[in-house]
Amino acid sequence: MMLNKRSRKLDFFCLSCLAAIGLVALLSCSRSGKGSEAKDQGAPASEQVASPEAEESQGNTAMKAPQIATDEAGLIDLQMCPKDYGSLSVSVSEDYTEAQVFSEGKLMQTISDPDGGLVATGDDTPVAYMDANFDGFVDIFIGPGESRTYSTLLLWNPVAQQFERVGTLGDPAFQNIMLHPSGKSVYEGGSASWCANVFFHYVWEDNRMKEVEELTVVNDSEQYGEYDVESRYTLKDGDQNLILATDNVDKLPGVWKSVVEKYGTAD
Asked: What is the DSSP string of 101-163?
Protein backbone atom coordinates (compact mmCIF):
# COMPACT_ATOMS: atom_id res chain seq x y z
CA MET A 1 0.00 0.00 0.00
CA MET A 2 2.82 2.38 0.86
CA LEU A 3 4.50 1.70 -2.46
CA ASN A 4 1.29 2.48 -4.34
CA LYS A 5 0.86 5.80 -2.54
CA ARG A 6 4.45 6.77 -3.19
CA SER A 7 4.06 5.73 -6.84
CA ARG A 8 0.99 7.95 -7.19
CA LYS A 9 2.80 10.92 -5.64
CA LEU A 10 5.75 10.49 -8.01
CA ASP A 11 3.41 10.22 -10.98
CA PHE A 12 1.63 13.43 -9.94
CA PHE A 13 4.95 15.21 -9.39
CA CYS A 14 6.23 14.18 -12.81
CA LEU A 15 3.06 15.36 -14.49
CA SER A 16 3.33 18.73 -12.72
CA CYS A 17 6.93 19.11 -13.85
CA LEU A 18 6.03 18.31 -17.44
CA ALA A 19 3.22 20.86 -17.37
CA ALA A 20 5.54 23.51 -16.00
CA ILE A 21 8.15 22.78 -18.66
CA GLY A 22 5.51 23.03 -21.37
CA LEU A 23 4.31 26.40 -20.06
CA VAL A 24 7.85 27.79 -20.02
CA ALA A 25 8.43 26.59 -23.56
CA LEU A 26 5.18 28.19 -24.70
CA LEU A 27 6.07 31.53 -23.12
CA SER A 28 9.53 31.38 -24.66
CA CYS A 29 8.12 30.83 -28.14
CA SER A 30 5.67 33.67 -27.65
CA ARG A 31 8.45 36.11 -26.70
CA SER A 32 10.60 34.91 -29.56
CA GLY A 33 7.79 35.59 -32.02
CA LYS A 34 7.32 39.13 -30.70
CA GLY A 35 11.05 39.76 -31.03
CA SER A 36 11.00 38.67 -34.66
CA GLU A 37 8.03 40.92 -35.28
CA ALA A 38 9.90 43.87 -33.81
CA LYS A 39 12.89 43.14 -36.00
CA ASP A 40 10.70 42.95 -39.09
CA GLN A 41 9.06 46.28 -38.27
CA GLY A 42 12.43 47.98 -37.87
CA ALA A 43 13.45 50.73 -35.52
CA PRO A 44 10.95 53.42 -34.47
CA ALA A 45 10.60 56.30 -36.93
CA SER A 46 12.42 58.66 -34.58
CA GLU A 47 15.48 56.41 -34.68
CA GLN A 48 15.57 55.78 -38.45
CA VAL A 49 18.38 57.49 -40.38
CA ALA A 50 17.52 59.22 -43.68
CA SER A 51 19.33 57.90 -46.72
CA PRO A 52 21.76 60.19 -48.59
CA GLU A 53 19.26 60.33 -51.45
CA ALA A 54 16.51 61.50 -49.09
CA GLU A 55 18.76 64.13 -47.55
CA GLU A 56 19.76 65.35 -51.00
CA SER A 57 16.12 65.55 -52.06
CA GLN A 58 15.23 67.57 -48.96
CA GLY A 59 18.16 69.93 -49.56
CA ASN A 60 17.16 70.49 -53.17
CA THR A 61 13.53 71.10 -52.23
CA ALA A 62 14.69 73.97 -50.04
CA MET A 63 16.63 75.39 -53.00
CA LYS A 64 13.76 75.68 -55.45
CA ALA A 65 14.01 78.69 -57.75
CA PRO A 66 11.80 81.75 -57.31
CA GLN A 67 8.86 82.10 -59.66
CA ILE A 68 9.42 85.22 -61.79
CA ALA A 69 6.95 86.37 -64.42
CA THR A 70 8.45 87.38 -67.76
CA ASP A 71 7.69 90.58 -69.62
CA GLU A 72 5.64 90.68 -72.83
CA ALA A 73 8.66 89.55 -74.87
CA GLY A 74 9.22 86.55 -72.59
CA LEU A 75 12.32 88.07 -70.96
CA ILE A 76 13.46 88.51 -67.36
CA ASP A 77 15.96 91.27 -66.56
CA LEU A 78 17.92 91.74 -63.36
CA GLN A 79 15.54 94.35 -61.98
CA MET A 80 12.71 91.81 -62.09
CA CYS A 81 14.59 89.31 -59.89
CA PRO A 82 14.00 89.30 -56.09
CA LYS A 83 16.72 90.78 -53.90
CA ASP A 84 15.68 88.58 -50.97
CA TYR A 85 14.64 84.95 -51.18
CA GLY A 86 13.60 82.47 -48.51
CA SER A 87 16.19 81.81 -45.85
CA LEU A 88 19.16 82.63 -48.10
CA SER A 89 21.41 85.64 -47.64
CA VAL A 90 24.80 86.66 -49.01
CA SER A 91 27.59 88.74 -47.53
CA VAL A 92 30.38 90.09 -49.75
CA SER A 93 33.74 91.19 -48.35
CA GLU A 94 34.82 94.81 -48.72
CA ASP A 95 37.53 93.90 -51.23
CA TYR A 96 35.00 91.87 -53.32
CA THR A 97 37.15 88.71 -53.16
CA GLU A 98 34.87 86.60 -50.96
CA ALA A 99 31.17 85.86 -50.68
CA GLN A 100 29.57 83.98 -47.83
CA VAL A 101 26.22 82.28 -48.41
CA PHE A 102 23.98 81.81 -45.36
CA SER A 103 20.88 79.67 -44.91
CA GLU A 104 18.66 80.46 -41.93
CA GLY A 105 21.48 82.56 -40.53
CA LYS A 106 24.02 79.71 -40.62
CA LEU A 107 27.07 79.78 -42.89
CA MET A 108 26.39 77.44 -45.77
CA GLN A 109 29.31 78.09 -48.10
CA THR A 110 32.17 80.48 -48.82
CA ILE A 111 33.15 81.37 -52.41
CA SER A 112 36.42 83.22 -52.82
CA ASP A 113 38.71 84.48 -55.56
CA PRO A 114 41.68 86.25 -53.97
CA ASP A 115 43.32 86.88 -57.35
CA GLY A 116 40.58 88.03 -59.70
CA GLY A 117 37.80 88.92 -57.29
CA LEU A 118 34.07 88.37 -57.60
CA VAL A 119 32.88 91.86 -58.55
CA ALA A 120 34.46 94.84 -60.27
CA THR A 121 32.59 97.94 -59.14
CA GLY A 122 33.21 100.95 -57.00
CA ASP A 123 29.73 101.01 -55.53
CA ASP A 124 27.69 98.61 -53.43
CA THR A 125 27.30 94.94 -54.29
CA PRO A 126 23.64 94.03 -54.77
CA VAL A 127 22.46 90.44 -54.77
CA ALA A 128 19.60 88.95 -56.81
CA TYR A 129 18.05 85.48 -56.97
CA MET A 130 17.00 83.75 -60.19
CA ASP A 131 16.99 80.51 -62.15
CA ALA A 132 19.75 81.39 -64.59
CA ASN A 133 20.22 77.92 -66.12
CA PHE A 134 16.54 76.96 -66.06
CA ASP A 135 16.95 73.78 -63.97
CA GLY A 136 14.37 74.71 -61.33
CA PHE A 137 16.89 75.58 -58.62
CA VAL A 138 17.78 78.99 -57.23
CA ASP A 139 20.95 80.71 -58.46
CA ILE A 140 22.65 83.77 -57.00
CA PHE A 141 23.74 86.85 -58.94
CA ILE A 142 26.29 89.07 -57.19
CA GLY A 143 27.05 92.53 -58.55
CA PRO A 144 25.40 95.51 -60.22
CA GLY A 145 25.01 93.82 -63.61
CA GLU A 146 25.42 97.14 -65.42
CA SER A 147 27.50 98.26 -68.39
CA ARG A 148 31.23 98.47 -67.73
CA THR A 149 30.99 96.42 -64.53
CA TYR A 150 31.83 92.79 -63.83
CA SER A 151 29.56 90.55 -61.76
CA THR A 152 29.45 86.92 -60.62
CA LEU A 153 26.85 84.21 -61.15
CA LEU A 154 26.60 81.22 -58.79
CA LEU A 155 24.64 78.14 -59.90
CA TRP A 156 23.19 75.64 -57.43
CA ASN A 157 24.55 72.13 -58.04
CA PRO A 158 21.86 69.68 -56.78
CA VAL A 159 24.29 66.76 -56.76
CA ALA A 160 27.18 68.43 -54.95
CA GLN A 161 24.70 70.38 -52.78
CA GLN A 162 26.59 73.64 -53.20
CA PHE A 163 26.86 76.74 -55.38
CA GLU A 164 29.37 76.82 -58.22
CA ARG A 165 30.69 79.88 -59.99
CA VAL A 166 30.22 80.37 -63.73
CA GLY A 167 33.41 81.43 -65.53
CA THR A 168 35.78 84.00 -64.08
CA LEU A 169 35.60 87.73 -63.45
CA GLY A 170 34.85 89.40 -66.78
CA ASP A 171 34.35 86.14 -68.67
CA PRO A 172 31.42 86.46 -68.95
CA ALA A 173 31.03 90.00 -67.63
CA PHE A 174 27.29 89.62 -66.95
CA GLN A 175 26.47 93.16 -67.99
CA ASN A 176 22.73 93.82 -68.22
CA ILE A 177 21.96 90.11 -67.92
CA MET A 178 18.62 89.01 -69.31
CA LEU A 179 17.02 85.55 -69.21
CA HIS A 180 14.83 84.03 -71.91
CA PRO A 181 13.21 80.99 -70.21
CA SER A 182 11.28 79.64 -73.21
CA GLY A 183 14.47 79.65 -75.29
CA LYS A 184 16.61 78.56 -72.33
CA SER A 185 18.97 81.37 -73.28
CA VAL A 186 20.91 84.13 -71.55
CA TYR A 187 21.60 87.55 -73.07
CA GLU A 188 24.16 89.97 -71.69
CA GLY A 189 26.30 92.86 -72.84
CA GLY A 190 26.55 96.59 -72.78
CA SER A 191 28.47 99.68 -73.69
CA ALA A 192 31.66 99.21 -75.69
CA SER A 193 32.14 102.95 -76.21
CA TRP A 194 30.18 106.19 -76.38
CA CYS A 195 28.63 105.12 -79.70
CA ALA A 196 28.54 101.32 -79.62
CA ASN A 197 27.14 98.40 -77.66
CA VAL A 198 27.99 94.71 -77.93
CA PHE A 199 25.61 91.98 -76.74
CA PHE A 200 25.98 88.22 -76.49
CA HIS A 201 23.50 85.37 -76.70
CA TYR A 202 24.37 82.20 -74.75
CA VAL A 203 22.94 78.73 -74.25
CA TRP A 204 23.88 76.28 -71.50
CA GLU A 205 26.08 73.23 -71.98
CA ASP A 206 26.87 71.32 -68.77
CA ASN A 207 26.39 74.49 -66.74
CA ARG A 208 28.78 76.37 -68.99
CA MET A 209 27.73 79.25 -71.17
CA LYS A 210 28.25 78.74 -74.89
CA GLU A 211 28.14 81.81 -77.09
CA VAL A 212 25.85 81.32 -80.08
CA GLU A 213 25.37 84.92 -81.28
CA GLU A 214 26.97 88.34 -80.98
CA LEU A 215 25.19 91.58 -81.83
CA THR A 216 27.12 94.80 -82.40
CA VAL A 217 25.08 98.01 -82.34
CA VAL A 218 26.82 101.16 -83.63
CA ASN A 219 24.72 104.29 -83.24
CA ASP A 220 26.95 106.61 -85.29
CA SER A 221 27.43 105.70 -88.96
CA GLU A 222 30.71 107.62 -89.02
CA GLN A 223 32.07 105.02 -86.58
CA TYR A 224 31.19 101.95 -88.67
CA GLY A 225 34.77 101.59 -89.83
CA GLU A 226 36.01 101.58 -86.24
CA TYR A 227 33.98 98.43 -85.57
CA ASP A 228 34.37 96.87 -89.02
CA VAL A 229 30.63 97.00 -89.73
CA GLU A 230 28.52 98.45 -92.54
CA SER A 231 25.18 98.73 -90.76
CA ARG A 232 23.83 99.81 -87.44
CA TYR A 233 23.01 96.22 -86.39
CA THR A 234 25.47 93.44 -87.17
CA LEU A 235 24.62 89.94 -85.98
CA LYS A 236 27.22 87.13 -86.07
CA ASP A 237 27.25 83.55 -84.85
CA GLY A 238 29.57 82.17 -82.21
CA ASP A 239 32.27 81.60 -84.83
CA GLN A 240 32.04 85.22 -86.03
CA ASN A 241 30.25 84.33 -89.26
CA LEU A 242 27.85 87.01 -90.45
CA ILE A 243 24.17 86.22 -89.92
CA LEU A 244 22.60 89.60 -90.65
CA ALA A 245 23.53 93.25 -91.18
CA THR A 246 20.71 95.79 -91.14
CA ASP A 247 19.76 99.32 -90.19
CA ASN A 248 16.22 98.21 -89.30
CA VAL A 249 15.79 96.83 -85.78
CA ASP A 250 12.57 95.08 -86.84
CA LYS A 251 14.60 92.71 -89.01
CA LEU A 252 16.54 91.29 -86.08
CA PRO A 253 15.55 87.64 -85.40
CA GLY A 254 14.15 86.16 -82.21
CA VAL A 255 13.99 88.44 -79.19
CA TRP A 256 16.92 90.64 -80.26
CA LYS A 257 14.68 93.63 -80.93
CA SER A 258 13.28 93.44 -77.40
CA VAL A 259 16.78 93.05 -75.98
CA VAL A 260 18.18 96.15 -77.65
CA GLU A 261 15.03 98.15 -76.94
CA LYS A 262 15.23 97.23 -73.29
CA TYR A 263 18.85 98.37 -73.14
CA GLY A 264 17.96 101.63 -74.88
CA THR A 265 20.03 101.08 -78.02
CA ALA A 266 17.29 100.94 -80.63
CA ASP A 267 16.62 104.66 -81.10
From this structure: EEETTEEEEEEE-TTT-S-B-SS---EEEE-TTSSSB-EEEES---TT-B-EEEEEETTTTEE
